[in-house]
């Protein structure tokens, strides 16, 4: 870590927060004998009881409701009659059509309900006491049985409501198995009618050795294992063993504070739970405000401090929670959230509004800002430092200056060091000032000698890039250095240094250099961004990621944009990259700012005529791409920025060429590559690189950086400053040769096999994967092939891999994928049936997301049929190849019988081209789908509406088992002996089979 050269030291340790200052493991020797899942569960419950939890066990859902009634009555000091209780359930607790989202809103926002008792008196009934946490009762139960006989391991009840559920696996089993099981329960039974498990807020998964927690959310972009979190102390030391986790996270006060203070239910109906470093930072800010108020230090640097949380770790959410909790302090009159650029203002205000729509009072200009400040509602004011500075100048004697105000600065390493910051501090007499930054200013990267600590005070909490990468919160960087510098003639005759520098600068935009770099970008673009591969995001099927190109100035942006157009002009439209650009003023290359990326505003009017004309042309191209109507006039340029931001995030733009905009403060998880033809240093370099390293899914393994300047030393300097020079391998991805040939991990001293060795081993062990019969061999194959998929996914990001001579042939790979998927389905069926399990597959993590990247679609299959029929191959030969291709497809393998039937019943010689075979197949398939639905409806005697229900399920790709819609389609069946439930389950399984076959048709 860099030495922090300031007059301020890190704060003294806090002891009253829920995040421990320092966690020390219990020195007592722990059990070393084998521990079954049942023993792990028993030990967990014993530990919870020792911490003050009460045990309770339920034999039915009715008993859970009885316990809930008792706890709600005790909490509110009331007694319901049976009739009142049923009405309270119907009106509030279990209202009709309430789903998981509505239940979450009750816990997070609407936890008090005005209930009218039968005698007419009104009383506020709360389901959780957020003001006095000691009033809440905590119980633990286990093995509750849900629908489909699902058994839930351990559940924590708060006032009778199951708010936390813990899923356990025995030690040695992959933790992802517990995660996958929770999602299976969510689909099958947690959210069924009258299930109190809709109220669950937090899931915890553990295999004893490792433990993680995550929010109960349906948000597709937050619903991956990568978004689970470990618990930790204030020094970011993780607390992973279940016993340690239980002592800390499940300490009663800690759990209740996480539930009531450190969750955010945003306006997108997404539940977010703060990670330990976010809670630690929030606690330290609140502690600093309170202690400074008591010590009468308001209005001094000692009343504030800064938070160093690396880019991509959720600073906006942390600052939002700190700001919200600060408004609840009685002595605080107003909380200002201050940003330093209009584009960040737009982004941050939208982020704040995402957490709570009315949290922002708005500040379009200083008049609006004045109104927001003068409102007596105690809400947060989000504004720019420029507007706040202007307000200060125009209102020198405003009464707000004598009130207690919290000032929170976003990205405090930039313009907060200037005149505006000084003016604000001089005006406010009782301020508490805090800065958030991912890249602080130290002496070595300071512009004028000012440092973050010197301006803002003590470092209150740090979570640096090495912490974030270790914890899986952001990705590593893979950096390629391609220093392309043209040589000019007679260089040895030049003696004037200024003339040499001028020539160097001129040659950086030499047409030959621009052409060569553009050619290189187009050559590697598909591999770097995985453009020919697929993944699922927010119910959309996307191909690959997108990229940004950082260039030195507007002239470079223009030259590159035009060269990309020229080199792509001969390509068909669908093959061309969609390229956009944006800038607003000419950056001054001569201005030697250490590490700074110069800010750009929304006023392109200051551009010279050439730059303005080119920008107009680029926006016109954009309008033609996307059928929009933006320009550089008035607010339209800002609207262009907003629309461009959205389309980059949604991966509609392939490559964005920028000068300064978007290189700081912009988050787009689908962006995985940054091309760089720009001098970057220190915080500017880390900020720019960090546009690429947001986690998204398993396919995105790291951020790709492709440099066309000599940035190797600058990168090392930045790592030394903001990470740890002794842990370069934590921040930078390994060399290609390491993955190909194998390597020894410097930290663990463990040898990791290379890709060549892994491929040779699997071929030697399983030369014919379709002939694996023993269960033990299937397990070993699945484990080895998972390794093949993981290495292949990493290596695809390396240019050298394009020339790699694959050891596993294309046909062998196809067969291996087919067998791998078969084994996975077998393991799932074993778990569902719980009968005759010979081999435990629970410690195998099946890499389904990685399989999907090369997913074979139906069009490919139909093209294969057409080509083989044109080659006059007989139908039996065609069917063999088609079966092999379909079996290796995760999504289309269930269509095998349908496609084979199509081949058998169609005269393939009549089909002349792709369009004809596609039309022919889909017409046939739709007819088969209608027959299957009719047959099922008739056989099961389903009521009217069955066709619509099944068609909707096919469109969605899944059968909804929540609500009454499916129940209403069933014929009359006696409920005695579970007959109706058995009928429903049977019909459900048959509909699921139809959906599997006809999805996408």
Classified in CATH, the superfamily of the largest domain is P-loop containing nucleotide triphosphate hydrolases
Query: What spatial form do the alpha-carbon principal axes imply?
Result: globular
How many distinct folded domains? 5
User: What is the helix content?
Assistant: 40-55%
Structural class: alpha/beta
Q: In oligomeric terms, what are we looking at?
A: single chain
CATH topology of the largest domain: Rossmann fold
Distance between the termini: 57 Å
Kindly report the average pLDDT value: 85
Over the alpha carbons, how many angstroms does the gyration radius reach?
Answer: 31 Å
Query: What is the total tally of β strands?
Result: 28
CATH architecture of the largest domain: 3-Layer(aba) Sandwich
Residue share in β-strands: 5-15%
Count of alpha and pi helical runs: 35
Low-confidence stretches: 1-14, 489-495
Describe the strand arrangement of the main beta sheet, using strand numbers: 1-4-5-6-7-8
Q: Mind summarizing the main beta sheet?
A: 6 strands, mixed
| CATH class division of the largest domain | Alpha Beta
Quick take:
This protein is of the alpha/beta class and about 1000 residues long. Helices cover about 45% and strands about 15% of the residues. Strand 11 and strand 12 (about 270-275) form a beta hairpin.
Folded structure, characterized:
This protein is α/β, with parallel strands linked by helices and 1001 residues long. It folds into 5 domains: 37-262, tt1808, chain A; 276-470, 3-Layer(aba) Sandwich (Rossmann fold); 476-733, 3-Layer(aba) Sandwich (Rossmann fold), CATH 3.40.50.300; 751-852, Up-down Bundle (Methane Monooxygenase Hydroxylase, Chain G, domain 1); 862-867 and 901-998, no CATH class. 43% of the residues lie in helices and 14% in strands. It has 35 helices and 28 strands. The strands form 8 sheets. Strands 1-4-5-6-7-8 form a 6-stranded mixed beta sheet, sandwiched between helices. Strands 15-14-16-17-13-18 form a 6-stranded parallel beta sheet, sandwiched between helices. A 6-stranded parallel beta sheet has the order 19-26-25-22-24-23, with helices on both faces. The chain is globular and about 85 Å long.
